[in-house]
């Protein structure tokens, strides 16, 4: 046992928690079945665990991401080799992985604590014998640590098999979290999520197999290096980019995000949009030959699509009514910016050493702030007992940070802007800045929707959020804003802007104006729609745009295609059965023929003597002649 | 010719001799029959494990005698054969356990278990056969001993399925016989592994070799269910669940696949097959079968029929692996021979459990079963996810090596086939899992089970539950611990190394 085995522990611990939950559920379920035998009634076993105190159970469950968090904060760089695992395990902790692991584990821990409060109502109903609540709760409690384990494994993995394993476990287990509410919309969102995810998995598998086999390697580093020198690099890189793009919300493949995020329980939306979406980004990092070679065509396409996503998602997102849908579109928009930066890395490999730390900061900052924003949605639906100004300050903090006006957002933006300016990418900087205006509009829209929800909740006198929810959300908002200063992030090359650097005063105006412009536009719109009723009607027309934009189109197209395929296959099947039937009937006819022969034989037997005499006679006559 | 024949013959005898004893026992002697069955299965597993250990150490086991001049009966335990023997004895144990629970209280158990033992004996014979003649003997014995199992229920449907089964397999057997005789005429006696005999034939014989290869493939392809020779398989699923499990996972379908492996690697030799251009043809047929089987499976509403078409598709992975020239393809094909067996036997056990416990035969009746039968449904989930190729289950390893082999053999299009088939697998398995776990069912007060019987204290009888959980656990552990020696993957790699580095 070495220190590196802690890496194994950080993944194994959530798995153990999941196994424990599964074991307990199985045990209680077994009891219920046995009792059903005697009483004739099946009663869903109440409560998640055995007889030990509730607090201990919750503490154990919430502790699932803590080893990973400790590893990210305290363990030195290390690597772990496991011969016995799959095709040979190789897990690492290096600069990029540490940053991602740290923020992912923290977000999961916060969201886990939040979930305890969020689900307390359901838990109470379950204890009083509501079977539906009990069922949802069981599924959530079981799948949460499982999804977490997948997420952590894919971050630590250096061998391709572990990476893909983690990715798959996370993807499939998260389906249960998405549909947890059990409503029609939840299943629709889950369906969109799963179908897109499977398509993505398919492309990832194709890309990984092809690239790994060409490079004859089992590690991600080997894969990247092999891809850099391969003749078919563009096709493989495209497959991988699209495959991971489903998770990362590349435009066109993003349709599941606005459908799945609003329907999932709020803590699950937070980790979906904050942590799991980054798995797509990490996938690009780990598999595309960034900084090794230039793929000009693909790079340009990626930049354009990323920018389109950044703008289009912002425009579509502001029309949404549900704050979680607005936030989902904001994720698409933000990921669009990151996508564009990945494209820059593919186009100009020399920029990558500068881009990587900036992107890591961007990703970590976005992940935590988006998580805090999602957690905030639940807070406004159940306003806690705290002063209004404090509540709105904490709600606005991640929003402003995401818009680039404060704290972590400000330093992320500064780092990127400085780096890109130095390299002469002024045009891109301008476009990204304009996209940030879209972000601030989205943030304003989110807060606006939340304000409505808050007012409604106060009017109806909804129960206040439990303490664990409030605490998790508030500490999330604060830690997110301060992320460059407490998390060890990969350092930029010497001389460039470091993640923890704050911009000089002179630059502030240049960095803040998009957020200010967004605020001004919002204020202008609000005032104008109050003064001019027709504008107000126009705007509320736009609010009817459904979340999931292109999804219905995809559904129709797929249905007509599948119908055709099904018909073709059915014809083939019919043809085969026809041949089989023909063979059988031919055999039957042959049998009939053979039976007829038997009758002929009977005739022959009866007339044998006569026949012999006749043939003898005929023979005699012929011979005599 | 003969060294260490004792162990070899004892292994074969465990199931071959058990059959007549079972036929002699009276129908009512449940305890004697059960203990005999289980004892024999355990003994055989132990003996095979001994041989696995021996072969891994480098021992050789062989037995043979001359039948007539130039034709000899030959048994031999080489790594390939012992791998198949290991699979069949492991799964036989599980299937026997399962069958005991499944047939509890039904008629004709004596007949069933007698032929069951014969069937396993012939599978073992196929695994240990040392030349094509011996292979053919056991191959035909398998055909005949399976027929009573397929028609066990005696319903008109079962009888019709049995007739179809015989029509296909006997015609296949005839073709195989012709091919074996032709090969004998051309090259004399060829023991498995004497690849140089055919390789040394001059180019003027090559058209003959190609013709014989095609005949062999037609003969073996019937059992291996290559499209368009697969027609019997979906119909044969009327058989009782343990029979279907055995048929699909280890006995009949695998016998065909294993025969093709033998012909390609040990009679023709992979180099000669490649030189004659036979592998590309096989790859195309296998790919077509994979896609066609998956598409047909998509349209089925009966659980067992869907599983049957899934077998058609999955078994062709083995053929696809073989047809990829290079060690990676070989590893893929051979490992999948084992992997598919583990996963498919699990799936059929589960389908049988649903039918026995709740009377469920159709997919739309599966709503909410996950709560009523969590153990079975968990096993089914593992089997299904493995079939789709989700790591860390074994199916992923097969797909990984197939992909590697495809690139190594210079056929990148195979990856497209793999991905398409994975997507189709997901399309026909995930809706089942969705119904099992996420749809509300009778326990939540919607609808009723078609025909519920309480077979055991827990979700169903322990005889039915534990084998399913056992094989599911194997298909998970064989994936997670694939790197350990003696895992299916390691064993397949061992064989592949021997094949390519003589």
Automatic annotation (TrEMBL), chain A:
Its main location: membrane. Keywords: Cell membrane, Lyase, Membrane, Transmembrane, Transmembrane helix. It is a multi-pass membrane protein. It is found in: Cell membrane; Membrane. One of its GO terms (molecular function) is lyase activity. The chain crosses the membrane at residues 6-27, 58-79, 99-119, 139-157, 163-181, 193-213, 233-257, 269-288, 294-319, 326-348, 354-377, 389-411, 423-444, 465-488, 508-528, 607-624. Pfam families: Proton_antipo_M (PF00361). Residues 157-382 form the NADH:quinone oxidoreductase/Mrp antiporter transmembrane domain. GO terms for cellular component: plasma membrane. Belongs to the CPA3 antiporters (TC 2.A.63) subunit D family. This is Formate hydrogenlyase subunit 3/Multisubunit Na+/H+ antiporter, MnhD subunit. It comes from Franzmannia pantelleriensis.
From TrEMBL, chain B:
It is a multi-pass membrane protein. Keywords: Cell membrane, Membrane, Transmembrane, Transmembrane helix. It comes from the Bacteria. The chain crosses the membrane at residues 6-25, 37-56, 80-100, 112-139, 165-187, 208-233, 245-264, 276-295, 315-338, 378-401, 413-434, 463-484. One of its GO terms (cellular component) is plasma membrane. It is found in: Cell membrane; Membrane. Residues 129-423 form the NADH:quinone oxidoreductase/Mrp antiporter transmembrane domain. Belongs to the CPA3 antiporters (TC 2.A.63) subunit D family. This is Multicomponent Na+:H+ antiporter subunit D.
